[in-house]
Amino acid sequence: MFSVNNKGKEKMFTRNKMACALAFSLLPFINTAMADDTAANSVEIQFNGQVKAPTCTINDNTSHSVVLPEINLQKVEALTTGQATADQQKRFQINVSCATKATENDIQLTIEGNSASATPEVLSNSSNDAESAHGVGFELFSEQDQNTPLQVNSVVPASDYIDRLNQGDDNINFIVEYAKQDATVTAGNVTSSATFAFTYK
Q1: How far is CA 195 from CA 24, 91, 94, 113, 151, in A?
Q2: How many CB atoms lie within 10 A of CB 94?
Q3: Among residues 10, 68, 71, 158, which one has the fewest Cβ atoms lying within 10 Å of its Cβ?
Q4: What is the per-residue DSSP string for 86-152?
Q5: Nearest-angstrom CA–CA distance, 106 and 199
Q6: pLDDT of amino acid 32
Q7: Which residues form a coiled coil (predicted)?
Q8: Are strands 107-113 and 136-142 parallel, antiparallel or unpaired?
């Protein structure tokens, strides 16, 4: 025979009842947490911007030829390597048109061409036939700074041209001079080319 202890049954029933009540009481908090996680999983962000039109354009979009007067070989030989001579220099200009006055924060000007690593300021002679000169090239200068040659494949200092980029048509003025590129110099034809290009910031 065995007997059932009613007190034990009451304790067990009471414990089960408390556990059940605790479980039901946690449900609202669990549901709220799940709802918060779902709400934080996505967000919509709107982006806005504007494409700016070019500030200035180069009106002369074709090739030009600048012919320098002949120079005596001895004058080039007397130069040091990388040095130019103002003798027989030639001035030229690039015509530009600007919608508004440009600043150095809007635009930059670069010069592209062929040069030797030892003399990056000298445009190399591209003529290579029997009648070509050797050891001679050209250097470019801005009108604003006629003592400092412009580096080839580099950015032109803004101070050399930015004051010319006013609203409307204007000109950027440059100077080209004969320059000594190598220690040995021979007489003949000298031909070089450079590309002037605006880059917009």
Answers
A1: 80, 16, 11, 6, 13
A2: 18
A3: 10
A4: EEEEEEEEEEEEESS---TTTEEEEEEE--BTTBTTSBPP---STTB-BSEEEEEEESS-TTSPPPT
A5: 9
A6: 52
A7: none
A8: unpaired
Q: Which two tokens stand for residue 21?
A: 């009540």
* Distance (Å, whole) CA 90 – CA 70: 11
Cα separation of 92 and 179, whole Å?
17
Integer distance in angstroms from the first to the last C-alpha of the chain? 100
Q: What is the pLDDT of residue 40?
A: 67
Give the CA distances from residue 90 to residues 102, 107, 131, 172, in Å, rounded to whole numbers and listed in that order.
27, 27, 22, 14
Structure tokens at 194: 């450079």
* Closest by CA position to 121, among listed 69, 156, 160, 168: 156
Sheet containing 194-200: which strands, arranged edge to edge? 154-155, 107-113, 194-200
pLDDT tens for each residue of 51-81: 777 778 888 766 789 999 999 999 999 999 9
**pTM of this structure:** 0.73
Is residue 18 very low, low, confident or very high in pLDDT (cuts 50, 70, 90)? Answer: very low
CA distance 200 to 107: 5
